[in-house]
């Protein structure tokens, strides 16, 4: 007997940081807003839709954004304000379901297979959530409705901004068939190029190659690709549980060298430290002791380097410094290109627990 189909929402606030700035400062409305500090070491945290028309994107160096859009208004990020709005949005979600999986301040998965409100459909629930967000925060959100998480995430992007898109179970395979394979989760530019070498440009082409051939060429990842091509994803929505790790990561628009990663590491360290502060406010007795640097090379090798100092990390500056220093422990050529970097905190224990002194590095490497 097959498991009942889930009803999953992915709700994504539209240009969240930039939209908050435009809401709170009417003079910014209709103008290209870039949320970032100016300077050579700064990167874009968010861009309004007006700025995106010039090619400005998050994680882009601020200097490049300024070249693309000289008339852009640069606004320094105010994470305290963004967190306050995020809490408002989370409260709206919680009126409908307890099965909420936050992905960041501005997006989350919701399992609305059963809801608190008794609304008749997942689509009606998504509409009610979006209307409440608009009314209570004066911001807009886009939503996707689908039988599973990865489809819901694709759907939420389908009619952005301020859109709603529904993929019903009987529509899944037909919806996926014409999409570029790059729309599937985990298929980045390198994997997309490898598939195109095999004549695979769309999900339909991928499906036609078959599970056996994909597994022969790509191992377990090939089998997973075949499942995704059919719209199969059994991962449940996972509500917040005791924290094991807090991290922030970004996939770059263009692959970068190691010596270009420092400003991104500092930016991601700030996001991770901000999340850690929220965790400490929720549970002051659980503290992190390990600093983690994650890298993914252009050819999809994943390398993790971590350090557990004798004293637990006590400041953003310490987190950023150690994360940057961990780069020296990556034994790859200087011209290696990286498509992703992440900064994390792990090793959560009770504050009063005496840690085992550990200054050695833990190293892990895998291939996606």
TrEMBL record:
Q: Which EC class heads this enzyme's classification?
A: transferase
Keyword Cell wall biogenesis/degradation included in the entry's annotation: no
- Which Gene3D superfamilies does this one have? 3.30.70.270, 3.40.1170.60, 5' to 3' exonuclease, C-terminal subdomain, DNA polymerase, Y-family, little finger domain
Active site positions: 107
Task: Describe how the cofactor binds.
Answer: Binds 2 magnesium ions per subunit.
Keywords carried by this UniProt record:
Cytoplasm, DNA damage, DNA repair, DNA replication, DNA-binding, DNA-directed DNA polymerase, Magnesium, Metal-binding, Mutator protein, Nucleotidyltransferase, Transferase
Record localization: Cytoplasm
Q: What is its EC number?
A: 2.7.7.7
Functionally, this protein is described as follows:
Poorly processive, error-prone DNA polymerase involved in untargeted mutagenesis. Copies undamaged DNA at stalled replication forks, which arise in vivo from mismatched or misaligned primer ends. These misaligned primers can be extended by PolIV. Exhibits no 3'-5' exonuclease (proofreading) activity. May be involved in translesional synthesis, in conjunction with the beta clamp from PolIII.
> What family does the entry list?
Belongs to the DNA polymerase type-Y family.
Quaternary structure (record): Monomer.
Recorded protein name is: DNA polymerase IV
Species name: Lysobacter arvi
